[in-house]
Write a structure and sequence with these properties.
Blueprint lengths: L1 H22 E6 L5 E6 L8 E3 L6 E3 L14 E2 L6 E2 L9 E3 L8 E4 L9 E3 L6 E2 L1 E5 L2 H9 L3 E6 L12 E9 L7 H23 L1
Parallel strand pairs: 1-13
Antiparallel strand pairs: 1-2, 2-11, 3-9, 4-8, 4-12, 5-11, 6-10, 7-8, 12-13
Helix pairs in contact: 1-3
């Protein structure tokens, strides 16, 4: 009985972790102070959509939180090649924040205009490559306090664009900081606790 329950819990945990990882298409690495590195994962797009990379790009909802600051002082470091999976990088991905108070971050200007328009395809890897920017202390601190995951929309450059047009193509995850366990992790711990409680109860009955 116990082994059956343990196997069942393990299978549930494995499925939860696999599904959670599948949805993450961008990783936000904050392990270096006053820098942010945005890297592609092997995660696939959840939708098929086309749009403008020059003026819109993708929007990382809630990444910057409510602190008022600008990302215009950020500097892209050499070697940036983050781009849509089906395109070639132009080496100049850019980040933008509207009105210095928009809760999200816009990522655009990633490809060399081919294919045009930019696009994502359901079930196909969304991005490839990575890019690093230096940040002001205020911008870095704000990202540290923002949610550790959120939705990625295409194609949009600000929060006001999300009224009906852009769609969610996946999620971003933030690493390199001490954070409260995400719901998936908490669920795994909870299932492990149930298994241990069952084992303890079984021993008492023997």
């Amino acid at each position: 009985m116990f082994f059956g329950l343990r196997s069942y819990c393990f299978l549930i945990c494995l499925l939860m972790v696999s599904s959670a990882r599948a949805g993450f298409i961008l990783n936000i690495d904050l392990s270096t102070v006053n820098q942010v590195t945005i890297s592609a994962t092997t995660g696939v797009s959840l939708a098929t959509v086309m749009g403008d990379d020059t003026s819109e790009g993708v929007y990382l909802k809630d990444l910057l939180g409510t602190s008022v600051f600008s990302v215009s002082d950020s500097t892209r470091l050499p070697g940036a090649d983050l781009v849509y999976f089906n395109a070639t990088s132009d080496g100049s991905p850019a980040i933008f924040r509207n009105n210095n108070s928009d809760p999200g971050l816009n990522l655009y200007s990633m490809h060399n205009s081919f294919p045009d328009p930019a696009s994502f395809t359901t079930g196909v890897q969304a991005f490839k490559g990575s890019a690093t920017w230096s940040l002001t202390a205020s911008a870095y601190s704000a990202i540290l306090l923002a949610p550790t995951s959120g939705d990625v929309y295409a194609f949009a450059d600000r929060i006001s664009d999300l009224n009906g047009g852009p769609v969610v193509i996946g999620q971003y995850s933030v690493s390199g900081i001490s954070a409260v366990p995400e719901p998936t992790s908490m669920a795994i711990f909870g299932l492990g606790g149930l298994g241990m409680a069952y084992l303890a109860r079984r021993k008492r009955k023997v």
